[in-house]
C-alpha cells in the first residue's frame, strides 16, 4: 500500500562556505523535502521519504541537483590545493596513449590520444604508410561528451558499423560506413542498447536492443525483453527482422555472433547477468532452424571458435573454474561435450588467433598465459614481464602475430607484439606516463575474513614507507558479478603514491578471482560475506600499521558503491573518508529501473520471499543508514547514468545528510552529460579525480 501527500518545496541555501566552516558540523545542505510514501513487504511497512527523487525529469529533482552541486562545489572550491592537484593530474595525463593494434581487411587500426584530447581517435595504417584518421570522436560533439562506443568490421574490412554514446548513456546509435572513403551507408540506427554488432558477409549485421521506454523515461524506464535483429544494408531500421527474443522468447539479455568463417550464428540468451542458454543456426543452409544447445540458465557457455562443424565451447558446466570443450555442431548437446582443456585450480579464460588457443589463467588474481594448438596440445607458456595482468590476446585465424597489453599497479600499461609461431614477445609501445616504477613496490598479502576465509589483497606504495599507522590509504574493492579485480596501472593513483599513500585492493568474495564458487559465496543471502571481507581488509591494514582509521579512505563504484554504502552503515567508525560511486543503494527497488532486474542472480529481490526481503532490507544502504557519526563522504553519480540510475545516489545522499550526527561533510557530486562511467571526456575524468583526491587529502590531513 502506498500513501502519497504533497511534498514541500526545496529551500536553497544562500550562505557561502568559509575555511572555518569546512570542519564544523553543519554545512548549508539544501532543506531536502520528505514525502510520506510507504511500501509494505510481507507485512513490514517500509518508508521511502525520498521516492520523489526517482523522477529525474521533475523540476523539484532538477532544483535539488543544482542546490547539492552548489554545496559540493562551494566546499571543494575552498580546498586550497584542489587546483594544484588538477594541474598535476593534467600534467600526468598529458602523454600519448595507444591501444593495441588490430587488423581489418588490408588495414591495421589503432586508437590514439595525443594526451588531453577529450576522446581517443581511431586511426588506420596501410603497411608502413602514414597513419590516417578513420573516426575522430573529439568532433562528435563540442564538449567531448559524445563517445565512440565500439566498431565492428565486415570480414573483408570494406564496411564498418560503429556505435556512439551521447552523454554516457547506454542507449546507442549505429552508423554504417564504407571504409574506403568513409561515406555513410543508409540511415543511422537508433535506440540500440547492450548490443554487439556481428556482420554476415557484406549483406548486413546482427544487433540487439529493447523496446524504448515510454517518452520521458528513457534513462530510468525498465528495459525488459531483449530482441536480436538482422539489419540488411540499404533498408530502413523499421524493416529489420527480429531473429530471436521479444515476446516469442522473452529473455533479458540476447547476443548474436557470427563465427569467423560465417558459417554459424551463435545466440546467447540470459535472464540475468549469470548463466545463459546457447543456440546455433547454420547460415550455410538456407532457412535452417535455430537449434538449442543448452536449455537452461544455470551455467555459462560461449562458443569461442569453430573448425568446420567442430565447435569450441568455453563453459563452467561441471567446472567452477571453467574448461574448454569441443563438440560437433550436428549433435551439440552437453552430453556430447569432450574436454579439450580441462579445469584446473586456476580460473581459465580463453582467446584464439593464428590457429592457436591462448589459455589465460588467473592465479591469485594475476595472469598466467599458455599456448595450445587447436587440438588441445600444449605448446608453451608465454613469458610475461612480471606479475600483473595480461590481456587482449586474440587475432584472426590467418594472422601470424598478435598484440597484447601488460600492466600492474606499478607497471604502466605496455603493448607487446607477439609472434605466434615462435612465442616471442617484443615491446611495441611503452607508456609515456611520468612514473618511475623503481621507486615503488606492489606486494600481495593474504588476510582472514570474519569466517576465516583467506582473502588476497595487493598493496602498492613507495619503497621505504614506514609502517607507523599514519600513511594515507585508499582501500578500493568491488566484490560482485564474478568480476575479477586484477592489477592495473592508474595515472590518477600517482597523486596518492607520490604523497606517501598506500593503494590497497582486496579481492572480495562475489568476484570471479577464484571461479564460480568464489562468486556464489558473495551472492544473495551470502552477500554479507562481501562486506565482512572488506571490513577485514581495513582491519588488517590498521592492525599491521599500514594506516589507521584517521588516515583511511574507502572507495568503490557501482556494485562497489553498494559495498561502500553498506559498510558505512554497518561500521561508520571504520574509516575517515568514503567514496560511494554510482552505487546500487536502494536494494528494495533496484529491479524497478532500466536493466536492474537482471542483477537478481547476485542480489535476489525483495519480492522473492520474506527471508530475502529481510536480508536485503537489513543491509540496503539507503535503508540501513541510522543517526550516527559518519565519515566525510562524497557520493558521486551522473545525470545520464541509465544503468544504475542516479536516484540511488540521490536518495542515499539525502538520507545520509539527514542522519549525519558528526562534523564531517556529506556531499554529492553529480556529473552532467555523463553516464555510468564509460565515455567520459578526459576533462571530466581529470576534474572528478582531482576532486576525489582533494576531498580525501583535506579530510585526512595530507599536506599537499
TrEMBL record:
- Domain of life of the organism encoding this protein: Bacteria
Reaction(s) catalysed by this chain's protein: Hydrolysis of Pro-|-Xaa >> Ala-|-Xaa in oligopeptides
Keyword Nucleotide-binding applies:
no
GO cellular component terms, alphabetically, are:
cytosol
How is this protein named in the record?
Answer: prolyl oligopeptidase
Task: Cite the GO molecular-function annotations of the record.
Answer: oligopeptidase activity; serine-type endopeptidase activity
- Known EC number: 3.4.21.26
Q: Which family does it belong to?
A: Belongs to the peptidase S9A family.
Show which residues constitute the signal peptide: 1-20
Q: Which organism is it from?
A: Mucilaginibacter gilvus
Residue limits of the Peptidase S9A N-terminal domain? 30-430
Task: Please list the GO biological process terms of this entry.
Answer: proteolysis
Amino acid at each position: 500500500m502506498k500513501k502519497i501527500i504533497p511534498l514541500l518545496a526545496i529551500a536553497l541555501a544562500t550562505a557561502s562556505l568559509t575555511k572555518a566552516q569546512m570542519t564544523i558540523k553543519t554545512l548549508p545542505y539544501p532543506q531536502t523535502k520528505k514525502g510520506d510514501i510507504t511500501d509494505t513487504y510481507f507485512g513490514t511497512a517500509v518508508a521511502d521519504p525520498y521516492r520523489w527523487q526517482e523522477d529525474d525529469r521533475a523540476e523539484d529533482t532538477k532544483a535539488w541537483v543544482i542546490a547539492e552541486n552548489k554545496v559540493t562545489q562551494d566546499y571543494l572550491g575552498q580546498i586550497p590545493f584542489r587546483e594544484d592537484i588538477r594541474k598535476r593530474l593534467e600534467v600526468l595525463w598529458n602523454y600519448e596513449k595507444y591501444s593495441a593494434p588490430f587488423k581489418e581487411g588490408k588495414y591495421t587500426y589503432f586508437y590514439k590520444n595525443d594526451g588531453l584530447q577529450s576522446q581517443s581517435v581511431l586511426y588506420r595504417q596501410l603497411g608502413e604508410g602514414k597513419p590516417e584518421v578513420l573516426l575522430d570522436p573529439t568532433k562528435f560533439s563540442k564538449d567531448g561528451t559524445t563517445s565512440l562506443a565500439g566498431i565492428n568490421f565486415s570480414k573483408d574490412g570494406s564496411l564498418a558499423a560503429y556505435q556512439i554514446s551521447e552523454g554516457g548513456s547506454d542507449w546507442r546509435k549505429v552508423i554504417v560506413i564504407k571504409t574506403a572513403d568513409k561515406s555513410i551507408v543508409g540511415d543511422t540506427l537508433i535506440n540500440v542498447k547492450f548490443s554487439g554488432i556481428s556482420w554476415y558477409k557484406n549483406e548486413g549485421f546482427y544487433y540487439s536492443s529493447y523496446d524504448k521506454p515510454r517518452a520521458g523515461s528513457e534513462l530510468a524506464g525498465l528495459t525488459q525483453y531483449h530482441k536480436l535483429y538482422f539489419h540488411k544494408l540499404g533498408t530502413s531500421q523499421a524493416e529489420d527482422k527480429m531473429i530471436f527474443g521479444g515476446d516469442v522468447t522473452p529473455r533479458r539479455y540476447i547476443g548474436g555472433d557470427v563465427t569467423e568463417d560465417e558459417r554459424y550464428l551463435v545466440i546467447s540468451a540470459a535472464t540475468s547477468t549469470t548463466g545463459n542458454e546457447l543456440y546455433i543456426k547454420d547460415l550455410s543452409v538456407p532457412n535452417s532452424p535455430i537449434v538449442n544447445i543448452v536449455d537452461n540458465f544455470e551455467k555459462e557457455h560461449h562458443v569461442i571458435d569453430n573448425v568446420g562443424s567442430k565447435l569450441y565451447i568455453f563453459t563452467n558446466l561441471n567446472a567452477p573454474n571453467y574448461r574448454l570443450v569441443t563438440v560437433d555442431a550436428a549433435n551439440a548437446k552437453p552430453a556430447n561435450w569432450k574436454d579439450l582443456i580441462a579445469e584446473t585450480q586456476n580460473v581459465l579464460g580463453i582467446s584464439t588467433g593464428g590457429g592457436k588457443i591462448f589459455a589465460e589463467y588467473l592465479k591469485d588474481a594475476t595472469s598466467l598465459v599458455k599456448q595450445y594448438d587447436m587440438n588441445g596440445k600444449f605448446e608453451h607458456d608465454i613469458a610475461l614481464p612480471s606479475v600483473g595482468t595480461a590481456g587482449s590476446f586474440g587475432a584472426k585465424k590467418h594472422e601470424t602475430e598478435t598484440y597484447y597489453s601488460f600492466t600492474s599497479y606499478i607497471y604502466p600499461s605496455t603493448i607487446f607484439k607477439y609472434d605466434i609461431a615462435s612465442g616471442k614477445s617484443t615491446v611495441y609501445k611503452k607508456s609515456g606516463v611520468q612514473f618511475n616504477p623503481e621507486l615503488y613496490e606492489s606486494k600481495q598479502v593474504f588476510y582472514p575474513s570474519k569466517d576465516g576465509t583467506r582473502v588476497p589483497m595487493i598493496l602498492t606504495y613507495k619503497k621505504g614507507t614506514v609502517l607507523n599507522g599514519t600513511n594515507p590509504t585508499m582501500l578500493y574493492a568491488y566484490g560482485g558479478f564474478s568480476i575479477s579485480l586484477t592489477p592495473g596501472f592508474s595515472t590518477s593513483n600517482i597523486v596518492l603514491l607520490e604523497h606517501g599513500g598506500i593503494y590497497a585492493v582486496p579481492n572480495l568474495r562475489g568476484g570471479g578471482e577464484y571461479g564460480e564458487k568464489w562468486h556464489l559465496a558473495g551472492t544473495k543471502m551470502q552477500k554479507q560475506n562481501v562486506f565482512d571481507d572488506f571490513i577485514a581488509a581495513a582491519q588488517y591494514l590498521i592492525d599491521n600499521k599500514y594506516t589507521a582509521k584517521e588516515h583511511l579512505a574507502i572507495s568503490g563504484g557501482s556494485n562497489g558503491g553498494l559495498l561502500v554504502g553498506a559498510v558505512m552503515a554497518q561500521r561508520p567508525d571504520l574509516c575517515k573518508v568514503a567514496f560511494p560511486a554510482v552505487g546500487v543503494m536502494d536494494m528494495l527497488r533496484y529491479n524497478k529501473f532500466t536493466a536492474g532486474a537482471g542483477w537478481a542472480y547476485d542480489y535476489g529481490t525483495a519480492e522473492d520471499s520474506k527471508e530475502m526481503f529481510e536480508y536485503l532490507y537489513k543491509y540496503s544502504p539507503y535503508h540501513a543508514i541510522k543517526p550516527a557519526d559518519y565519515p566525510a563522504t562524497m557520493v558521486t553519480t551522473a545525470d545520464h547514468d541509465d544503468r544504475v540510475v542516479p536516484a540511488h545516489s540521490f536518495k542515499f545522499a539525502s538520507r545520509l545528510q539527514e542522519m549525519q550526527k558528526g562534523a564531517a561533510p556529506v556531499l554529492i557530486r553529480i556529473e552532467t552529460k555523463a553516464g555510468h562511467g564509460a565515455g567520459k571526456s578526459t576533462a571530466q575524468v581529470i576534474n572528478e579525480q582531482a576532486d576525489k583526491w582533494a576531498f580525501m587529502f583535506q579530510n585526512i590531513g595530507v599536506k599537499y
